[in-house]
Amino acid sequence: MKIRSLIGSAVFAVGLVAATAAGAQGVIIDQGGVRVVPPSQEVAPPPPGRWDRGPDYGANDEEIGPREARRIARSAGLIETYGVDRQGRVWVVEGADRRGRAMRVVISARSGDIVNVDRARRG
């Protein structure tokens, strides 16, 4: 009976050590998928507020992102958005106004100012 309890205690101790060793690992979720890594390989998360920005949005924190460009275009009368594209120093937001007419709003990526508004003309 003492041998069974001794074996049981040994198995419990080995399981406990294995569980704490597995708990020391980190989990990284990135473009490569989900990975379990040792603590020495963990990577710090990106700074707050940069989650929606990709490599082509620039390293300058003063530039606006696609969400801000869409919001600014809505203030110019754009109701439905079809696309938000970065073209050099400007954001081009395409969509439709409240009447369903095609509309294109060009916004400065640095200042957020509306550079141009093109509405479809009936002809």
Please supply descriptive tags for the structure shown above.
four-stranded antiparallel β-sheet; alpha+beta; 123 residues; 2 helices; 2 domains; Nuclear Transport Factor 2, Chain: A
What does this protein look like?
This protein has 123 residues and is α+β, with helices and mostly antiparallel strands. The chain folds into 2 domains: 2-41, no CATH class; 62-119, Nuclear Transport Factor 2, Chain: A (Roll). Helices cover 26% and strands 31% of the residues. It contains 2 helices and 6 strands, in the order αββαββββ. The strands form 2 sheets. Strands 3-4-5-6 form a 4-stranded antiparallel beta sheet, with helices on one face. The protein has a two-stranded antiparallel sheet with strand order 1-2. Strand 3 (80-87) and strand 4 (90-96) form a beta hairpin. The longest helix has 22 residues, at 2-23. The radius of gyration is 27 Å and the shape is rod-shaped. 7% of the residues are buried.
- At the first level of CATH, the class of the largest domain is Alpha Beta
> Biggest sheet: strands, sense, closure?
4 strands, antiparallel
* SS element count, helices: 2
**Which radius of gyration do the C-alpha atoms yield?**
27 Å
Low-pLDDT stretches: none
Strand % is: 25-35%
SSE string, helix = H, strand = E? Answer: HEEHEEEE
Short characterization:
This protein is of the alpha+beta class and 123 residues long. The protein has helices at 2-23, 66-75; strands at residues 26-30, 33-37, 80-87, 90-96, 102-108, 114-119.
